[in-house]
Design a protein that fits this description.
Elements: E1 3-7, E2 16-21, H1 25-38, H2 45-57, E3 60-65, H3 73-78, H4 83-95, E4 108-111, H5 118-129, E5 133-137, H6 145-148, H7 161-168, E6 175-179, H8 194-199, H9 202-205, E7 208-209, E8 216-217, E9 223-228, H10 236-239, E10 243-246, H11 252-269, H12 282-288, H13 293-309
Parallel strand pairs: 4-9, 4-10, 5-6, 6-9
Antiparallel strand pairs: 1-2, 2-3, 7-8
Helix pairs in contact: 1-2, 11-13
Length: 334
């Protein structure tokens, strides 16, 4: 599996991209030919369609990296409690500059209470690096095939999330978020985290085999972000493969900055937002600062709606939902 340079535009500040093969077309052609020769095409129609789709899309995917160390000051302001993680990302980006090397980021584990912005960080990271993001929610996962696919011999079998991100996606180095990894429910028959042992290691990830497609996939460029409330329940071999960062809730002042940023974003994203005040009042920011970051956006949208019901374009603290976002039955105060 190889890569070749596609574009490099440092003067424009655009990402540098290479085309990288994420699988061997010859391997797929051989598998398809063997299936056709066996006469079992109808029995394995889904598998045949998967291999045909792989050949139609081809093995080449974009492997992107910033053309220089980007200005990350806005991210430090938006994610003030993620400073250490952002420092780590900046180091990895710096190492990949002025060379043909791909961007490699040591797998990241974000530890912290719900709502501190762990998943939001991953989205911002993907945007910063110019790639895509896929979310794998481990709390609802009862078997390992969500990541690695299930055997084609099983009814309803299909490829896993890693296959989907690399083969169905556009990038060889997507951000894949394994959310709430500490809530994966292992049983005696199959370890839901089993696939991660190889995927988090660069060398073994180069030949990751999805159990459905049965074709080696190059997952070595994937940027892994895992989240958890605590380390309990995460096997040591998994922990040892990642850089672990403890994410605390933002300070009151940092929370006010996050709330102000979200206010400006919502206002900018909507035509109706232009009618509201450019900045919210201090008491609105103080009230929002009491919420977890992921609750702030919902609370703000509710507040904007309440202000309009009252024929105002200025938010007041009373416009915010009482007792936290999402607790009002229909989203607006009555």
């Amino acid at each position: 599996m190889s890569s070749r340079s596609l574009v490099a535009s440092p003067t424009l500040g655009l990402p540098i991209a290479q085309m990288r093969s994420v699988f061997s077309a010859e391997d797929v052609e051989r598998k398809l030919a063997n299936l056709q020769a066996s006469g079992n095409e109808r029995e394995y129609e889904s598998l045949r369609n998967t291999w045909q789709r792989m050949l139609e899309r081809g093995p080449q995917r974009f492997a992107v990296k910033p053309s220089g160390v980007p200005d990350m000051a806005p991210l430090y302001e938006l994610l003030p409690n993620f400073g250490e993680v952002l420092d780590d990302v900046k180091r990895h980006v710096a190492l990949s500059q002025d060379s043909s090397d791909s961007l490699e980021v040591t797998p990241i584990l974000l530890l912290g209470p719900p709502g501190v912005g762990k998943t939001h960080f991953a989205r911002q990271l993907a945007e910063l690096l110019g790639t895509s993001m896929s979310l794998v929610p481990m709390s609802s996962m009862t078997a390992g095939w969500l990541l690695s696919g299930s055997s084609s011999q099983w009814k309803g079998a299909k490829p896993g999330k890693v296959f989907e991100a690399l083969v169905d996606g556009q990038y060889a180095n997507p951000v894949i978020v394994v959310d709430e990894i500490d809530k994966a429910s292992a049983d005696a028959q199959y370890d839901p985290l089993g696939a991660l042992y190889g995927l988090l290691e660069h060398d073994t990830a180069q030949s990751f085999v999805d159990e459905f497609a049965e074709v080696p996939i190059d997952a070595s460029q994937v940027i892994w972000v895992t989240t958890a409330n605590h380390e309990r329940g995460i096997p040591d071999p998994i922990l040892n493969r990642m850089n672990v960062f403890e994410i605390s809730p933002p300070s009151p002042e940092a929370a006010r900055k996050i709330a102000g940023h979200l206010y400006r974003n919502i206002r900018r994203e909507h035509d109706w937002g232009q009618r509201f005040d450019p900045v919210p009042a201090d008491d609105v920011l103080d009230a929002l600062a009491q919420l977890a970051p992921r609750e702030m956006r919902r609370a703000l949208v509710t507040a904007f709606g309440n202000a309009r019901l009252d024929n105002r374009y200025t938010l007041e603290a009373d416009d915010l939902p009482r007792g936290g976002a999402g607790r009002s039955r229909i989203g607006f105060l009555q």
